[in-house]
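From the methods appendix. Each design record in this collection lists the tokenized structure first, followed by the designed amino acid sequence. Records were kept in a plain field format so they could be parsed without special tools. The example shown here is representative of the layout used throughout.

RECORD:
FOLD TOKENS (484 positions):
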């Protein structure tokens, strides 16, 4: 076994770790970063046991010490299933997942020195990993991203017996782990006071490939996605109505940039690009963003005294020209169960100077999109009120200021008027759009100030140093104690 001391010193090169995610590894960035750090900084062989579906980052796939084992995905629940049979799925599904996890953790991969498991989901993950760690005489560390029982309560209600049982399992098996990591000081306090669990805070930090994009990188990205950006969900919008222009015929011209020879420039009348990433789940109320966009559209029209009787082609041309307030393009990335519902809502909106596009980007293009945007929006509210949104961490890594929903511990990440703003309603978010984008792109001093604040703080800490100082000593100590 590997390990050299309780103080968390060097982990021997012959060691092995298993990273366990009962979910899509491509949509679990923190666990991908764990795997890379285990391989790069702890010099361990790393086995990832997870579901497939979305491609993980190329750095993970290309590292010779990282081995990805994809489990078979549980099929989506059929809508035609009678309601009376649905409770049986709550029992049958975790049973099948439990057996599959045991097969992979005890048979398919070599015995690791330590299992590091993402929580949630807690059931059956914590039970399976604990049993596997006992069978294989391995250590067992939980990385607490949130509480599983609070997520389950979103759909079943806090008073559900299933939620109570889930809570008991999560707490019991959380206490028998050899070590714990968590994402905030608020969660650390909750685990210590009410769960009897001592956890080490490991703040999310972006890896090195999350950074501001160069002008050339922006242009190439916009060229790749230009066709998708120009295709509206409804009959027309402020992006598809490029009146009196031949931009569509020129491959070197995008909605944001123009290339002449080797020279690339940003358009003076480009839309402001706002990015929001989401898993399209109930803990993110996407209607807040739709309402705020509609309010921005109506308020700008009123401020400019626009005449509804004005000829349509003249109005589109004026909107494209800016006139104090720019067009807003919202690009929403991510996959999830409520995506189709909101796309249908977007298609019904009657917007003049706001457009929405949804897309799923390659892992290498997502950081480029963040690094090319003007503002990020986060609608994450947290089922427990104790976790922080990884998407905001990634945005900050790319130098992108953020408007985020306000909740109990978000101030551990977002510092108001320094790197972002907080809002509690759609009206407040619309006000922030009006303030930040007035005079865009030339003026907009408040937006520039927030960006400078993000850039000033992003260089002080990164994932590698945070992991080296907090996660590596815990992993080293746990492996040493388990091998003694």
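DESIGN:
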């Amino acid at each position: 076994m590997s390990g050299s001391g309780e103080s968390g010193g060097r982990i021997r090169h012959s060691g092995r770790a298993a990273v366990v995610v009962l979910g899509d590894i491509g949509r679990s960035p923190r666990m991908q970063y764990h795997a890379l750090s285990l391989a790069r900084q702890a010099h361990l062989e790393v086995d990832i046991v997870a579901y497939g579906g979305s491609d993980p980052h190329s750095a993970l796939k290309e590292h010779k010490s990282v081995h990805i084992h994809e489990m078979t995905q549980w099929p989506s629940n059929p809508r035609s299933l009678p309601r009376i049979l649905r409770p049986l799925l709550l029992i049958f599904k975790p049973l099948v997942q439990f057996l599959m996890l045991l097969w992979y953790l005890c048979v398919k991969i070599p015995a690791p020195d330590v299992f590091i498991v993402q929580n949630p989901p807690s059931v059956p993950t914590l039970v399976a990993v604990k049993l596997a760690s006992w069978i294989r005489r391995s250590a067992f560390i939980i990385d607490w991203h949130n509480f599983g029982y609070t997520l389950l309560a979103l759909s079943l209600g806090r008073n559900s017996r299933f939620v109570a049982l889930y809570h008991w399992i999560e707490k019991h098996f959380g206490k028998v782990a050899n070590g714990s990591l968590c994402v905030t000081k608020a969660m650390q306090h909750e685990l210590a006071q009410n769960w009897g669990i001592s956890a080490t805070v490991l703040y999310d930090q972006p890896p090195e490939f999350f950074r501001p994009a160069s002008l050339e990188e922006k242009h190439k990205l916009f060229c790749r996605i230009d066709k998708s950006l120009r295709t509206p969900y409804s009959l027309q919008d402020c992006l598809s109505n490029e009146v009196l222009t031949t931009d569509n015929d020129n491959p070197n011209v995008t909605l944001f940039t123009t290339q002449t020879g080797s020279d690339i420039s940003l358009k003076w009348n480009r839309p402001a690009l706002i990015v929001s990433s989401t898993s399209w789940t109930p803990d993110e109320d996407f209607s807040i963003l739709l309402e705020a966009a509609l309010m921005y559209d109506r308020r700008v029209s009123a401020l400019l005294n626009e005449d509804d009787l004005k000829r349509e082609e003249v109005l589109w041309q004026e909107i494209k020209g800016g006139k104090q307030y720019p067009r807003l393009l919202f690009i929403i990335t991510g996959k999830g169960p409520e995506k189709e519902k909101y796309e249908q809502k977007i298609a019904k909106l009657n917007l003049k100077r706001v457009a929405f596009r949804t897309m799923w980007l390659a892992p290498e293009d997502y950081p480029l999109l963040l690094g090319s945007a003007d503002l990020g929006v986060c609608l994450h509210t947290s089922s427990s009120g104790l976790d922080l949104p990884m998407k905001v961490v990634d945005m900050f890594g790319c130098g992108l200021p953020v408007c985020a929903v306000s909740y109990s511990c978000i101030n551990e990440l977002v510092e108001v008027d320094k790197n972002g703003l907080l809002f509690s309603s759609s009206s407040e978010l619309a006000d922030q759009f009006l303030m930040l984008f007035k005079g865009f792109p030339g003026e907009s001093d408040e937006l520039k100030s927030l960006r400078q604040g993000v850039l000033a703080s992003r260089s002080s800490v990164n994932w590698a140093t945070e992991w080296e100082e907090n996660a590596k000593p815990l992993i080293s100590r746990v492996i040493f104690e388990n091998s003694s």
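APPENDIX NOTE: The chain has 16 helices and 15 strands.
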